């Protein structure tokens, strides 16, 4: 305790969950748990009647599901074997061998694309987008169904140069079903506070409906199908 408030030394945390178990007020919670592919599918199967009525299925998301490539491959293959529709939500930053190992069991790729310029992408995310774009093109040329998902973050991804770059990339892709625009929101700020991390966009506001409509119109003018927003 410091000044009457609890302080956590996160450098000693082993993510064992003992503190969460001991907290009678549920002030501490362990997010996530280890599961096998069979355990995940057992949970998924409970909702199969809903998938059959809505044409839904299993979506692997994250974080980045390809950071656990063996588990993702096992889960997607097992889901396909059971006749479940599968979708993979990915930023595409992975070795092609990783994508190649899972793509035959993916019915739909939800492919995130933030910035068109490699230097800006590196500055904002820590990595360039060369691998991402190469993987996107290979998937498109392989005939895979792709929905391109583009976050609209005011002051970062919504300027005219970036939007023109994204439109050019998307226009050159075969098999692209549509672009989905994802308006920025600050819902993650609370998670950062709970993890004692610095949230870098504290004053960023969500784009207005008018701005989202203008962006959608700009992309549609390039012959693209646009949704979301």
Question: How would you summarize this macromolecular structure in one to three sentences?
Answer:
The protein is α/β, with parallel strands linked by helices and 229 residues long.
Describe what you observe in this structure.
The chain is α/β, with parallel strands linked by helices. Helices cover 40% and strands 14% of the residues. The protein has helices spanning 18-22, 37-45, 48-54, 69-81, 96-102, 118-125, 130-141, 160-171, 189-194, 209-220, and strands at 57-60, 85-90, 108-112, 146-152, 176-183, 226-228. It has a 6-stranded parallel beta sheet with strand order 1-2-3-4-5-6. Helix 4 links the parallel strand 1 (57-60) and strand 2. Helix 2 packs across helix 4. The longest helix has 13 residues, at 69-81.
Quick one: CATH superfamily? Aldolase class I
Number of domains: 1
CATH class: Alpha Beta
| Relative strand content | 5-15%
Q: Give the uncertain stretches in residue-range form.
A: none
Helix- and strand-based class?
Answer: alpha/beta
Q: Key terms for this structure?
A:
229 residues, alpha/beta, TIM Barrel, 10 helices
Secondary-structure topology with pairs:
Layout: H1 18-22, H2 37-45, H3 48-54, E1 57-60, H4 69-81, E2 85-90, H5 96-102, E3 108-112, H6 118-125, H7 130-141, E4 146-152, H8 160-171, E5 176-183, H9 189-194, H10 209-220, E6 226-228
Parallel strand pairs: 1-2, 2-3, 3-4, 4-5, 5-6
Helix pairs in contact: 2-4, 4-5
